[in-house]
Design goal:
The protein has 688 residues and is of the alpha+beta class. It has helices at 50-64, 96-107, 139-151, 162-173, 212-223, 227-235, 243-271, 292-300, 321-329, 335-344, 357-402, 406-425, 437-446, 450-471, 503-508, 546-560, 636-639, 646-650, 656-660, and strands at residues 6-12, 16-24, 29-38, 71-76, 82-88, 115-123, 130-138, 158-161, 182-188, 193-199, 202-208, 277-283, 303-306, 491-500, 532-541, 569-572, 578-585, 590-591, 609-610, 616-617, 667-679.
Amino acid sequence: MPSSSTAWGVEIGASAIKGLKLVNEGDRLRVADFVVLPHPKPASSPDVDPAEVLRVGINTLGAQVDLSRAAVAVSVPGHMAFARFAKLPPVEPKKVPDIVRFEAMQQIPFPLEQVEWDYQTFVSPDSPDVEVGIFAITKERIGERLQMLGDAGIRPDIVTLSPIAVFNALAHDLEFTETSPGTVIVDIGTTSTDLVVADAGRMWIRTLSIGGHQFTQAIVDAFNVSYQKAERIKREAHDTAHAKQVFSAMRPVFTDLAQDIQRSIQYYQSLHKDTKLTRLIGVGSTFELPGLRKFLQQQVQMEVYKVEEFKKLGADDLQDPARREAFKGSAIGMVTAYGLALQALDLGVLSANVMPLRVLRRTLWKDKVKWFGLAAGLAIAGSAAMFIGPFQDNVKVQAASAGQDPITIQRVLADGQRAKTLAQEAGVVGGAQTDYRAANLAGLVQHRDLYARLVDDLGRMLDAADGAAATWAPRGPDGKPVPKPEGPAYELKLFDTTYEGGGLIASASVAALPVGATIQSPIPEELHRQPLVRIRLRVSTAQADPQRFMIATIQQWLRENRDREGVPYLIFADENPWRLADVSLAGGAGPLGRDPRMGSGAAATPGLEGDRRGTAMMPPRPVTRPGAPVIRIGDAAAAGSSQAGAADLATLAPLGSLRDAEVGAAATAVFDVEWTIVLRPKKQEGGA
């Protein structure tokens, strides 16, 4: 992901595209840039194609603003998505995802496989209840929006709902806590209004079908003018001699909006009997209509405010005075962009993200490759520094020798001896083993496209598994077909790679082995010095008979794709490259069938040292010393086999507890899969 200290929040609205760039300097947030790009005509205009209006605006943004060196969060309007809320029954925390999934199936008016969704739980300090907010958008809609962004060269890291961004902005700026006054936030957009309730540590959303478009249309109907002229009249109403007639034309819309807000507040209060809502905060450009604030205050009987500036965000960092004034004047319309940038900086109270999972994987790995190159450059620079000093000393000695300057010669020799002594004490020279880290990092530059290929392999593997899941039809002990789980065949937990530029020889640290020791591996000897990558994959699946499903999908894919035309590497995998890390039956039956070598969970895997992020780095594969058993690094013979069945199962670690359970029992199995790819020699890169 891009820098976590710099982020763009981009609101794609029907009247304009607004963006805000924030930099997190630790003790404060700095406004680095902002942009407001009004559409030539609002997307709500009756004589335009809304999709084309947005496409032109997004392309303009991509052409005028560089978003490439920051995290990017974009919004989708509340009326394009779904927000549903429910109270959860008392359950153990680990069961919450299962309960939420069940609630999502009940609440979202589409099958789950047709939507991208996320959720957020809320707990009030004075209540034992756990509430959940479920946020979803159809895959068709999110796909269309991402396609528009992608065509303009914009690839966001986060896509969330506008009302979530608005809540994040005000929760941060006004420091909402569990004891803050109950607050109603009303964001009047062009085509709809988002009403957000912030109360006692929780939030609630309802989208109303009234927006700025309805005010404009009321003027069109009353004065028989064009839509564009009505827009202009609406914005300038308070400065014209006909202000009274204009407001009279819009009054029915004022009334409808106030009634919808009242009904929404009453409905929320009926769900939360003890709640006390004391203030209403208005955001969105339409909220600047003269008289609207006073009218709402009379109707909803609470204090009504509008956002005029941000308490925690100033424009003083902007160099141009005109830009500073422009930012101050646009605060009421920048709330959504503010909240989006906060979420991209991991400073948002809510973190719901409806970005498709596969896009997130691809974005993560594409950005990760860039850092490989940077790390390689730093390693090369560090290595160069190790040689600059000795080189300069050598020049001094040679120059002094030419002039017969014994003082300089002795000083340089003494410095060299002290450096050698320090190096020996630190273990840098002497009997230390060769350190291949710098070479490995430098090798990443040469093979910088390798990781893109590995991620592509991962996508192909998971896509093939999804295809296999469609026809996967095991039967239970009663002979009846087992119901198929919803969603993808596998859920990705971890995809970890370790590049070893020195190949199998370097990995084995052969220099430290006794004389005559050899590497025992099915990797051909001519490939032992070729660069390789160790790969570890962790996935979970809810498919019935998960071991056989693993054999028929990922294990089979690794075998069938070992040697491919046009791919610059070969795949080497053990005969059974996977280990069962954990299996939990639904209904609280607890973990079953865990590989005894995996400990009590994935993090306890022996030989895998977890880093602080909770992932694991693959250790170098062992080599064979005299008298030691052979450790297989990949089975070339098995790689050519296309058969998988009972013989495979017989070779696995004990699986009795899972095999004794019903095949059809609802379960989630977690697998660790390991394999190695070895780069072909240059002359073979076109294929075997």
